[in-house]
Design brief:
The chain is α+β, with helices and mostly antiparallel strands. The protein has two domains: 6-48 and 135-164 and 171-245, 60s Ribosomal Protein L30, Chain: A (2-Layer Sandwich), CATH 3.30.1330; 59-132, Alpha-Beta Complex (CofE-like fold), CATH 3.90.1660.10. It has six helices and twelve strands. It has helices at residues 22-32, 49-55, 69-78, 82-91, 138-153, 207-219, and strands at 6-8, 44-48, 59-61, 94-99, 102-106, 112-114, 130-132, 159-167, 170-181, 187-188, 204-205, 227-231. A five-stranded mixed β-sheet has the order 1-12-2-8-9. A three-stranded antiparallel β-sheet has the order 4-5-6, covered by helices on one side. The two termini are 37 Å apart.
């Protein structure tokens, strides 16, 4: 560890359309940014969910949606778009909570989050009538981008697909990992000694989440920068999956 971390968010990625070669757009942006220079071993690329979903066509035209009565009633009560409520319910494997204008669902990925990760912000043309879904397989999305960058630059850069999640008991959102390729998303420190020599018995670092959250500070929400390169982070290389981060229901105190 060097005690130094750099986060470089290049400009130059245009509005992503369905079917776009996202890896090529990212590669062009990385290659044209003089701050980044050559990619290095240990670099990690963070790619926001929104551009992955757009490129993969994981978008829904709300003008085609007929909401069910339950969605209409909920939307009227809490000033929501009933069409978006309907899409959230359709995409849910399980509705965890649905009240006070908030819908918490479990997705087919096993993620538990507000609105199933379905989002109407930063969708480009059609805003107001278009929402993005989560990518079908974010780990596979990350792997495809990683493979394309390896072929182009000759450096194997781990990739994290990130998205913004709220948190129980705290205000505000943070970015977390919803897909990974090329690194272990967790670092298990149990059994190792801390700085004072005490053996840690419960410490497991959510490294992929920390990388995603750190990168978001450079990305912002309205800058048009959907990717960031994190340089100098301590990671463990490996073929991990975002499912490694998901707590089994039998060990969850708040299922």
């Amino acid at each position: 560890m060097t005690g130094r971390l750099e986060i470089l968010a290049p400009d130059g990625i245009p509005e992503v359309q369905p079917g776009a070669d996202l890896a090529a757009l990212i590669g062009d942006a990385l290659a044209s940014d003089p701050r980044i220079g050559l990619l290095r071993d240990g670099d990690v690329l963070i790619v926001t969910q929104k551009v992955v979903s757009k490129a993969e066509g994981a978008v829904v035209d709300l003008t085609t949606i007929e909401p069910r009565p339950e969605a209409v009633a909920f939307a009227e009560r809490f000033d929501r778009d009933p069409r978006q409520v309907e899409v959230v319910l359709r995409e849910a494997v399980r509705v965890v909570r649905m009240e006070r204008g908030v819908i918490i669902t479990e997705t087919h990925h096993g993620l538990i989050c507000a609105n199933g990760g379905i989002d109407a912000s930063n969708v480009g043309a059609g805003t107001g009538d278009v929402v993005t879904l989560l990518p079908r397989d974010p780990d596979a999305s990350a792997a495809r981008i990683r493979a394309a960058l390896l072929e182009r630059f000759g450096v194997d850069v781990p990739v994290v697909v990130s998205d913004s999640f709220g948190r129980p008991w705290r205000w505000g959102i943070v970015d977390v990992a919803i897909g990974v390729s090329g690194l272990e998303p967790l670092e298990d420190l149990r059994g190792r000694a801390d700085h004072d020599g005490r053996v840690m018995r419960s410490t497991v670092r959510a490294v992929a989440d920390e990388l995603a959250s750190a990168a978001e500070l450079a990305l912002g929400k309205s800058t048009g920068r959907p990717v960031a390169l994190v340089r100098g982070a301590e990671i463990v290389r490996g073929e991990g999956s975002v499912r490694d981060l998901l707590m089994p229901r039998e060990t969850d105190l708040f299922p």
